[in-house]
Amino acid sequence: MSQTNAKKETLPSELRVVVEVDGNPVGFLNLDVSRLWPLINHRKRDHVPVEWMDAAKFDSIMRAAVMKKLMARLETHLYRALGDEMVKAELDVESFNLKAESAAQTFGGTKAEIEKLVLETDRTPLDFYAFFWEYLLDERDVTDLKREWKAWGTRPR
Question: Does 91 have pLDDT greater than 60?
Fold first, then answer.
């Protein structure tokens, strides 16, 4: 067998899906076919279902066709899930900005105001920043941010 024919019969061991948003690549999904294929084709047969076709060619064509269909289905699910999660991420951005604005209105928007706030307590600026990030990441609604700050050091974390 010539080297050219050997290369044609070698199947790629990795499939890559380019993930695009608005026509711009934002990432890749790489699948290791040599690890994935045994999970898909777990029913090893001793013979090819069609006697008139070379077994190696049949396996090669079947693998290529199955992987092509798998990738098409994955892309459909991937783009649907990505679209749904991007909408949620946009809402997360808005929520973080609103919470940060609320904290700025409550405690002040400058470092000097935060330093003055922590001087009035026995806490450090790092304590305030830890409180602030905990507040941003917390899912619950906070009605009185000043009361939360006062109680923050006394409750277990």
Answer: yes
CB neighbours (10 Å) of residue 104?
13
**What does 75-142 look like in DSSP terms, one character per residue?**
HHHHHHHHHHHHHHHHHHHHHHHHHHHHHHHHH-SSHHHHHHHHHTTT--HHHHHHHHHHHHH--S--
| 102 residue type, one letter | S
Model pTM above 0.90: no
Q: Enter the tokens of residue 136.
A: 């941003």
What confidence tens digit (pLDDT) does each residue in 32-70 have? Answer: 988 998 888 887 666 777 788 888 888 888 889 999 999
Contact assessment for residue 18 and residue 25, using Cβ atoms and an 8 Å cutoff: yes
Domain-wise residue ranges, the chain: 1-90, 108-157
Q: Which residues pair with 20 in a beta bridge?
A: 25
